[in-house]
Design goal:
This protein is an alpha/beta fold. β6, α6 and β7 form a beta-alpha-beta unit. The protein is built from 9 helices and 12 strands. Among the domains are: about 170 residues, 3-Layer(aba) Sandwich (Rossmann fold), CATH 3.40.50.300; about 40 residues. The chain has a 6-stranded mixed β-sheet, with helices on both faces. The chain has a 3-stranded antiparallel β-sheet with strand order 2-1-4, covered by helices on one side. It is globular, with a radius of gyration of 23 Å. The chain binds adenosine-5'-triphosphate. The site of adenosine-5'-triphosphate (ATP) has 10 residues, from α1.
């Protein structure tokens, strides 16, 4: 997947503001960003569901704006809100959609993969929200797609369903499926994705391996401990082992409440997004002002990481 200079403008406001991105075959890529960042707009352009204002896009070697039936049959989509008909049973709706693809998966395998065996013959309208979401996921994979788009797939899932979903994604990945995932669950992205991109205000703030995104400085571990009087201490260090050894030696024994904390993907993500917000922040308008003044866009400057 190749994206160059992608822009989407709604009523004079750029929801996607010049994105360049390559996603490799077989990788799982997480697109992360706050509400309104431009994730769904980007994904819907890649799916061929939304037109673009400018830029070049190639998905499985085809411009999605011109993707025909063959191209569509190679792609699986789980939209943010499912649109399946509630009057059919789970099995019927899957059967119907499987018929649209040249080489679909077995319906029973798909039902088992999303954990809906007990609900296979129940009308979709009668399922809980989380169960309906599982039907959305089932519809996304029934056509055995080469490329799977998952837009906030696990919203509404209980913890067990999420774990089961992660297993499903791992098995799809093992089969060679390319996956583009958007999610607000950073632990989900950290577990599933090979690489991630963080987007805010329609721009990519950073792209990189799930262990590298945000840069080395954002990932420096912190050692915390309490001294003999119970006072807390904290040191950021690239050498936590050495620091712990020196604390032990200085205290002459086990430090109390010792912790070595490595920043999570969530910490790194929040650092990136807050840094970008600070870079574009303008002073608050005087109170009582009813007219919203658009924030000036910084001059093609990369936001601070
Ligand atoms: N059809 C539309 N018409 C006008 N503006 C739109 C339209 N769709 C999206 N937008 C605007 O574009 C911006 C990006 O929206 P988008 O849905 O892509 O964000 P998102 O990153 O997917 O957010 P979320 O995490 O809330 O799903 C938002 O400011 C939104 O209000």
């Amino acid at each position: 997947m190749r994206i160059r200079g992608l822009r989407k403008v709604y009523g004079g406001i750029a929801a996607v503001d010049g994105i360049d991105l390559d996603i490799r075959r077989g990788e799982t890529f997480a697109l992360l960003g706050p509400n309104g960042a431009g994730k769904s707009t980007t994904v819907e352009i890649l799916e061929g569901y939304r037109s673009r204002t400018a830029g070049e896009v190639e998905v499985l070697g085809v411009d999605p704006a011109r993707g025909g039936r063959d191209w569509k049959s190679r792609i699986g989509i789980v939209l943010q809100t499912g649109g399946e008909t509630g009057l059919l049973t789970v099995r019927e709706v899957l059967h119907h959609f499987a018929g649209l693809y040249p080489n679909p998966r077995r319906i029973d395998d798909v039902i088992a993969a999303v954990g809906l065996e007990a609900k296979a013959n129940v009308r979709v309208a009668k399922l809980s929200g989380g169960q309906q979401r599982r039907v959305d996921v089932a519809l996304g994979i029934v056509g055995r797609p080469e490329l799977l788009f998952l837009d906030e797939p696990t919203t509404g899932f209980d913890p067990e369903a999420r774990q089961q979903f992660w297993e499903l994604i791992r098995s799809l990945k093992a089969e060679g499926t390319t996956i583009l995932l958007t999610t607000h669950y950073l632990d989900e992205a950290a577990r599933l994705a090979d690489r991630a991109g963080v987007i805010a205000g329609g721009r990519l703030l950073d792209v990189g391996g799930i262990q590298e995104i945000g840069g080395a400085e954002a990932r420096v571990p912190v050692v915390r401990w309490n001294d003999a009087e119970g006072r807390p201490h904290e040191v950021r260090t690239h050498e936590p082992g050495r620091v712990v050894a020196s604390i032990v030696s200085a205290l002459g024994g086990e430090p109390r409440a010792l912790e070595v904390i490595r920043p999570t993907l969530e910490d790194v993500y929040l650092g990136l997004v807050r840094g970008a917000e600070a870079a574009t922040a303008t002073p608050d308008p005087p109170s009582g002002t009813a007219i919203a003044t658009p924030a000036p866009t910084p001059d093609a400057e990369e936001p601070a990481a």
